[in-house]
Amino acid sequence: MFTVYAVVAVVTILANVGIAVADLAKADFVLANSAEVGVPRSWLPVLAVLKLAGAAGLLLGLLWVPALGVAAAVGLVVFYSGAVAAHVRARVLYNIAFPGAFLALAVASLALAFTM
């Protein structure tokens, strides 16, 4: 079961690092999406840092401190629940699958962390 957890955690880590880099680079798709859901551009660096913190916590939890991985997964679940809620609130549903996928990865990481 550890292998499944490790694979899901690594995919979650890579996905969060990737989207955090896109946030920091102010990629066009990030700017368009954040404007559509009402997230100010000035929040992007902070949101990127939160995603990177979640990824780092998952990595540290995977390698050394399992409780830290659980805490990071909880943080990512809360974060992406907020992202999904922002999409619903703004009625931007055509691309809700993206924050939904990040939320699903965070939930899977959290659920599997409890099997360790």
Folded structure, characterized:
The protein has helices spanning 2-24, 28-37, 44-63, 66-89, 97-113. By secondary structure, it is an all-alpha fold. It has one domain. Helix 1 packs antiparallel against helix 3 (44-63) and helix 4 (66-89) packs antiparallel against helix 5 (97-113). It is globular. The N and C termini lie close together (8 Å).
Question: Would you kindly provide a brief summary of this structure?
Answer:
The chain is mainly alpha-helical and 116 residues long.
Please render the helix and strand layout as text.
Elements: H1 2-24, H2 28-37, H3 44-63, H4 66-89, H5 97-113
Shape descriptor: globular
Give the number of domains: 1
pLDDT below 50 for ≥5 consecutive residues: which ranges?
Answer: none
**How many distinct helices?**
5
Mean pLDDT: 97
β-strand percent reads: under 5%
Terminal CA distance: 8 Å
Count every beta strand, where a strand is a DSSP E run of 2 or more residues: 0
Describe the largest sheet. none
The portion of residues assigned to helices is over 70%
Radius of gyration: 14 Å
Q: Topology as H/E string?
A: HHHHH
Alpha-beta classification: mainly alpha
Short descriptors:
116 residues, mainly alpha, 81% helix, 5 helices, single chain
